[in-house]
Request: fold
Amino acid sequence: MPFGSGDRAQLRQVIDQLCGLATDLAAVKQQVADQQHTIDRIRQDTDAALTRGLTDMREIARDALTRTDKITTGRLTGIGSDLAAVREALTRLDNRLQAETAGPRETPADPPGPDPEVRTTPQAAPEPEPADPAPQPTSEAGDPPEPDQATLRAAAGISAATLHAHRDTWEFLVKHAGTDQHFHLPAGVQDTEGTILARVSGPSLVAALTSLHHVSHTAADPGTRAIAAHLHERLTETVRAILTRRHRGDGADPVRIVIDDRAAPDDTDDGDDSER
Reply:
């Protein structure tokens, strides 16, 4: 069949429809591109907001942790100081209780004598008991004499003295001087194979001198009096040496108190060898 004018008109309509479809398709593609661009912007803005939020949250958490550390550290430091004070108070209370309980022991009552109606065989007279040691000199009122004030003033002027003594000697000193109001336990006490190295202050030396002086005159046990008198004499010798050759500030050796008496070396063997 021949291609006529009617066919041309129909073909033109088809072409126009295809052109409209192409235009509509291009508009749809543009809308899709715009929506994709909008989605990308929303995603970027969301990521940026989340990043800023996380950064702010990290800074807030870091600041909170820093404040918590400061508060906790300060409170722990205060608790440590309180525990040290409580420990020192308990030590003084224990020393005071030990000093109060270590009083003179009661002598047992004499047993009742034999019944006068019962005859007893004569026995040899018992041997006399050894006489008690001579009482220490006391003042007119019956109290021990006052310690030497010059020695106490010299001891008070000592900044710190290093005490070298056996552990038992140090415990004896703390037991009898720890109840004094001027005695302070040193912060650090070194224990090297039973030998104590303690840095005691001037007030603690004053407390030790007065306490040992009192114990050496009033203790019921002769051994306690002897130990207290020996320690008091050694402390007094050291303080009087400072009193006679006083020096302030640098330029002199630190004060050392050594409680370690030993026998002098025997030179007789060397002499015998030389004679041979």
Observations:
- The first strand starts at residue 160 and ends at 166.
